[in-house]
Amino acid sequence: MSAVACSHDESNVAVASTRGNVSIYRLSPSVHFHVESNTRPTGSNMDLYSTLHSITQHAGSAVKELHWSLQGKYLYVGDSAGMLTQTDVSEKLSV
Predict the structure, then answer these.
(1) Whole-angstrom Cα distance, residue 66 to residue 69?
(2) What residues are paired with 75 via a beta bridge?
(3) Which domain holds residue 74?
(4) Alpha-carbon distance values, 58 to 11, 45, 72, 74, 92 (Å)
(5) When comparing pLDDT for 59 and 37, which is higher?
(6) What percent of the chain has pLDDT over 70?
(7) pTM across the whole model
(8) DSSP β-ladder status, 74-79 and 63-68
(9) Dihedrals φ, ψ of 50, to 5°?
(10) What pLDDT score does 30 carry?
(11) What is the domain-level CATH number for residue 31?
């Protein structure tokens, strides 16, 4: 993992890898009860998060920066090759 960014309302989180993969997850309100746990959710706890969207434009370059817009509509991603992208994630997050 090379970068993590939480939306301003703390309902979504973006996670990036050193290989350029970016995934966006929606967090359940109950996730706050598990933040100190070092174990991965299993069984009935799997509903704590769900993958909403993947961004692939940065594949092959380490993601260095992730930032959400104030309203959570856009995710900005910057990588080690100097590429900067703005992704409109509002439609994907309204699922």
Answers:
(1) 10
(2) 68, 87
(3) 3-93
(4) 24, 31, 20, 16, 19
(5) 59
(6) 72
(7) 0.73
(8) antiparallel
(9) -145, 140
(10) 58
(11) 2.40.10
Separation of alpha carbons 77 and 46, rounded Å: 27
The domain tally of the chain equals 1
CA distance 76 to 85: 6
Query: What are the tokens at 24?
Result: 């966006």
Residue 63 in 3-state DSSP? strand
What six digits make up the tokens of 1?
């993992």
Under DSSP, the state recorded for 84 is: E
Condensed to tens digits (0 to 9), the pLDDT of residues 17-38 reads 889 999 998 876 655 544 444 4
3-state SS record for 2-49: CEEEECCCCCEEEEECCCCCEEEEEECHHHHHCCCCCCCCCHHHHHHE
| CA dist 94 → 27, 42, 53, 90 (Å) | 13, 25, 11, 6
